[in-house]
Design goal:
The protein is of the alpha/beta class and 257 residues long. The chain is built from 11 helices and 8 strands. Bound molecules: phosphoenolpyruvate.
Length: 257
């Protein structure tokens, strides 16, 4: 197993996948292992975030391969009377090492506020999960010229001070690009990523320079290389194109430096 570099390519399966999907993850791991065997460059870290029901089976299937398993959300508390919820400790116990938090689908459907996301991030750190914290503007906000202000506010209030010195990733996911096939221009992505880097460095000093900033929103084989070559783009959070190994692997391949 080869240690990954700063690059992170993470698949978000959303509410897709039953046991038959495990073979897709196994195919990803096998191809990553082959690629690592013949490549000298630092490999990207690769993660798959399946529905909670598959975390344990995926962690078992991928054990020792270097492909990481993540959750898609976690309750802020370790346990309690919270029917239907899953805690960060439970994900960790099931074999996850990362967790997506503050995804725009959860912010929109479950009215997750920035402080609620910050509390979940603290819960993830408590359980020693690496949070992937999502931020991003809606189409109305972008058309209103508010993209940088919205992302700046989300960063200021979704990231707790407890992140200082801890491993985490940030994902810039413009809401209007998720699952739509639309992507921002390279200039738009680079502008927001540069602003995120400045905010992270302002907040966390030298540690802020090391935090991977992922882009997410309709990443696919055809655009991954161009997006991943942009300054301050350290990886990708991939939804639809992560469900099948044949779609995901070219994106992973583009993540090799
Ligand atoms: C996502 O859900 O985080 C995402 C980026 O989805 P998609 O790649 O399908 O746009």
């Amino acid at each position: 197993m080869v240690e990954g570099g700063r690059r992170l390519i993470a698949g978000n399966w959303k509410m897709h996948g039953t046991a038959t999907a495990l073979s897709e993850a196994r195919a990803v791991a096998a191809a990553v292992a082959r690629r690592q065997a013949d490549g000298a460059e630092p490999p990207p870290r690769v993660a798959i975030c399946p529905p909670a029901t598959l975390v344990h089976r995926l962690a078992e299937a991928l054990a020792g391969t270097g492909v990481l398993v993540g959750g898609q959300d976690a309750h802020a508390e370790p346990q309690g009377a919270c029917t239907g919820d899953v805690s960060a400790e439970m994900l960790r116990d099931a074999g996850a090492s990362l967790v997506i938090l503050g995804h725009s689908e959860r912010r929109a459907s479950y009215r997750e506020s920035d402080p609620a996301v910050a509390a979940k991030v603290e819960g993830a750190l408590r359980a020693e999960l690496e949070p992937i914290v999502c931020v991003g503007e809606t189409l109305d906000e972008r058309e209103d010229g508010q993209a940088l202000a919205v992302v700046g506010r989300q960063l200021a209030t979704s990231l707790p001070d407890a992140l200082n010195g801890r491993a985490f990733a940030l994902a810039y996911e413009p809401v209007w690009a998720i699952g739509t096939g639309r992507t921002p221009t390279s200039e738009q992505i680079a502008e927001v990523h540069a602003a995120i880097r400045t905010a992270l460095t302002g907040r966390f000093g030298a540690h802020g320079q090391t935090i991977p900033i992922l882009y997410g929103g309709s990443v696919k084989a055809a655009n991954a290389r161009e997006i991943l070559a942009l300054p301050d783009v350290d990886g990708a959070l991939v939804g639809g194109a992560s469900l099948r190994a044949t779609d995901f692997l070219p994106i992973v391949e583009a993540g090799w430096a």
